[in-house]
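user: At home tonight, take the chain set out below, taking as long as you need, and be ready to discuss the fold:
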Amino acid sequence: AEALQVVHYDPGQKYDLHNDWFDPGHPYYADRMRARGQRIVSVFCYLTDVEGGGCTHFPRLERRFKPERGTAVLWFNQNINGAMDERVLHAGEEVTAGDK
């Protein structure tokens, strides 16, 4: 397992579209798998309410989650057959007011 990651966004900050799983075609892949393995599940726990923006957007699933204190979003990075799930491509949209 990986260490816990805590992320903070100020107004104007965002995180571009990406997948949380590690790409088998990338040069670091073999080393990553030996060290800790694939990211099977991701979870975001929102610690604050965001005044504006900052949604977590999954465009291929046509879903957008507003960060609200005390809520969480969980998804599997692999499908039932163990293949990486392209549908969970996501982004942290720009925070327009407050912080996240």
Summary: The helical segments are 29-35.
